[in-house]
Amino acid sequence: VQLQASGGGLVQAGGSLRLSCAASEGRYAIGWFRQAPGKEREFVAAISWNVRGTAYADSVKGRFTISRDNAKNTVYLQMNSLKPEDTAVYYCAAGRQSLVWSSPTKLDEYDYWGQGTLVTVSS
Question: Which among 5, 52, 54, 85 would be 20 to 30 A from 74, CA to CA?
Fold first, then answer.
């Protein structure tokens, strides 16, 4: 499967952005991860194929919302109340087939990765 992330950009603190992840095919749990300069890639949010399962990192709970439209093979990450510490390259990824009904949170639970989209939050 191929994943295309989009929607990044420059926004002021307190602002909002919506990221999109378009998948070329298949049924997968989809996760969003981010990597800031000099830091390791970290989990942000995930959603199961059937939308019943979602998971969020503590740092984004209450501010970010993950959703999906399976008719469009697209997963969204709505990011509100953005903070400068949210600045990073955001990647979407498709989980292992065995985890399609889950919302996995670990890097090694994902088999396919998109190219990333840069989010910059200015103070």
Answer: 85
CB atoms within 10 A of CB 38: 5
| pLDDT tens digits for range 19-40 | 999 999 989 999 999 999 999 9
Pairing type for strands 117-122 and 9-12 reads parallel
In the β-sheet with 3-6, what is the strand arrangement from edge to edge? 3-6, 17-23, 74-79, 64-69
Query: Within 10 A of 73 (CB to CB), how many other CB atoms are there?
Result: 18
- Structure-token pair, residue 22: 């378009």
